[in-house]
Amino acid sequence: MQALRVLGLVALLALIVGAIGGKVAALAMLFAGLLGMLAWQLINLQRLVEWTHTPTEVSLPAGVGIWAHIFYDLDRRSRTSADLRERLTGALDRFHEASQAMPDGVLYLSANDRIEWLNRKAEQQFGIDGRRDHGALVTTLVREPEFVRFLQGGDYAEPLVLHSTRRAGLTLLVQVVPFGDKQKMVVSRDISQLEKLETIRRDFIANVSHELRTPLTVVTGFLETLIDGRDDFTPEDVTHFLQLALEQSLRMQALIEDLLALSALETGAPAAVEERVDVAALVQSIAEDTRLLSNGRHEIEADIDVRGGCAILLGSEKELRSAFANLASNAVRYTPAGGRIRLSWRCADGPGEFAVEDNGIGIAAEDIPRLTERFYRVDRGRSRETGGTGLGLAIVKHILSRHQAELRIVSAPGKGSRFSARFPASRLEPALPALRS
Ligand code: ADP
């Protein structure tokens, strides 16, 4: 419209010029007008072309006439599509962030099992590099046969337990969720810890059954022998058999008591009672019990030094007695007759330390880290002979950890051992306050 109006104006001017100055002047006027109009269109076209090469967020320059409409319209459309693009990119970013934050591995596969996207957890679990391996066939990177079979089998009702061949000890629970047009989402969860616990539980049940079956078999054997040969045995024989059967029953009883103690310490039993334990009295009384157990076969001394403010230990007296007595009885059981055993308590360098030292059989370096495992014994025969259950140090470790204390073991075969429990200074107090009359 605008252009027509300008054209009309130019024609009118040409007519006026023609009337005044003649035909040539009118034609020149018309030509100049048309040339001007053409130049104007070309300039606007050039501005439009330049705009298409600028970044999307730059606005179009203002135009005049028809160009103002064109520029305005194009500008509005471009802004709408930029907004839409921004919203879509935002949604995609949020989706990626959420997928990255997931505790499980997430892997998207195309219809032909090529890698489209995966989060960091999946990268670690499957050993895939998201950038490098984009578009690669997943089965060329995750090559465990059971995974390949599972993915290609198409039955995803049950998850797959995948034992990684790439990283020893890594077990994944893999689920496949088909979506869209034959695409798949693979979700992987690290269940290595659960698997380990399950193995420990199975081993534990096997160990307990084995430990109980041995003495039970002996008792059953004695009872059958006594029943079968009732008339052949002298009263002394019978007493002897019953004595042996009683020993085995006591062994089973000790085992069950230790198992109950361990389970009470492990499974949600209430936290240790905070009592103000008089450590000197406790250590002296354990030294007395240890002498009774040794029955004169060892030289046993107690060395107590509470200077430094550790006359009182805060904790459960019952549990502390059990842990300290366990260490002392081990010293008796693993030190040949004539050996020396020394119990001590001191806090000179800050933490409170209860220690049991012996010059007994000692322990090889490779066995030391495993001593607190349930049923771990260096010499099974010697442990049994001396009434051991293989649970003593496991109980000690639990009790000490309930008191934020640390068990340290220093030992050398043939030289002896030193077991020490170090309690934090926060559990120590100086002497009992004097009672007010
Ligand atoms: P056990 O009932 O077999 O003694 P523990 O858990 O108390 O079970 O100890 C585990 C193992 O640690 C023992 O079987 C023994 O081999 C070793 N052990 C513990 N204390 C000593 C010690 N003072 N000297 C040598 N070996 C020891």
TrEMBL record:
<keyword id="KW-0472">Membrane</keyword>
<dbReference type="InterPro" id="IPR036890">
    <property type="entry name" value="HATPase_C_sf"/>
</dbReference>
<dbReference type="InterPro" id="IPR005467">
    <property type="entry name" value="His_kinase_dom"/>
</dbReference>
<dbReference type="InterPro" id="IPR003661">
    <property type="entry name" value="HisK_dim/P_dom"/>
</dbReference>
<dbReference type="InterPro" id="IPR035965">
    <property type="entry name" value="PAS-like_dom_sf"/>
</dbReference>
<dbReference type="InterPro" id="IPR000014">
    <property type="entry name" value="PAS"/>
</dbReference>
<keyword id="KW-0547">Nucleotide-binding</keyword>
<dbReference type="InterPro" id="IPR036097">
    <property type="entry name" value="HisK_dim/P_sf"/>
</dbReference>
<keyword id="KW-1003">Cell membrane</keyword>
<dbReference type="InterPro" id="IPR003594">
    <property type="entry name" value="HATPase_dom"/>
</dbReference>
<feature type="domain" description="Histidine kinase">
    <location>
        <begin position="207"/>
        <end position="427"/>
    </location>
</feature>
<dbReference type="InterPro" id="IPR050351">
    <property type="entry name" value="BphY/WalK/GraS-like"/>
</dbReference>
<dbReference type="Pfam" id="PF02518">
    <property type="entry name" value="HATPase_c"/>
</dbReference>
<keyword id="KW-0808">Transferase</keyword>
<dbReference type="InterPro" id="IPR004358">
    <property type="entry name" value="Sig_transdc_His_kin-like_C"/>
</dbReference>
<dbReference type="GO" id="GO:0016301">
    <property type="term" value="F:kinase activity"/>
</dbReference>
<keyword id="KW-0592">Phosphate transport</keyword>
<dbReference type="InterPro" id="IPR021766">
    <property type="entry name" value="PhoR_N"/>
</dbReference>
<keyword id="KW-0813">Transport</keyword>
<keyword id="KW-0067">ATP-binding</keyword>
<comment type="function">
    <text>Member of the two-component regulatory system PhoR/PhoB involved in the phosphate regulon genes expression. PhoR may function as a membrane-associated protein kinase that phosphorylates PhoB in response to environmental signals.</text>
</comment>
<protein>
    <recommendedName>
        <fullName>Phosphate regulon sensor protein PhoR</fullName>
        <ecNumber>2.7.13.3</ecNumber>
    </recommendedName>
</protein>
<keyword id="KW-0418">Kinase</keyword>
<keyword id="KW-0902">Two-component regulatory system</keyword>
<keyword id="KW-0812">Transmembrane</keyword>
<dbReference type="Pfam" id="PF11808">
    <property type="entry name" value="PhoR"/>
</dbReference>
<keyword id="KW-0597">Phosphoprotein</keyword>
<dbReference type="InterPro" id="IPR014310">
    <property type="entry name" value="Sig_transdc_His_kinase_PhoR"/>
</dbReference>
<dbReference type="Pfam" id="PF13188">
    <property type="entry name" value="PAS_8"/>
</dbReference>
<keyword id="KW-1133">Transmembrane helix</keyword>
<dbReference type="Pfam" id="PF00512">
    <property type="entry name" value="HisKA"/>
</dbReference>
